[in-house]
Amino acid sequence: MGLEIDYLFHPRSIAVAGASESPDKTGHTYFKNVLDNFKGKSYPINFRAPEVLGVPTYKSVRDLPEDVDYVISAIPNRDIIDLVEACISKNAKVLHLFTARFSETGFERETQLEYEMLEKARAGGLRILGPNCMGLYYPKEGIAWGRDFPQESGNVGIISQSGGNGGEIISTGASRGLRFSKVVSYGNALDLNEADLIDYFAEDPETEIIGGYIEGVRDGKRLFKALRNASKRKPVVLLKGGRTQAGTHMVSSHTASMAGTREVWEAMCRQTGVTNAQSLDELMDMLVAFSTMPPAKGFNLLVGGGAGGRSVLSADECEEEGLHLQQIPEDVRQELERQDPFFGAWVTNPVDSSIMGGSNLTPTTWCS
Question: Would you say the pTM of this structure is higher than 0.85?
Answer without folding.
Answer: yes
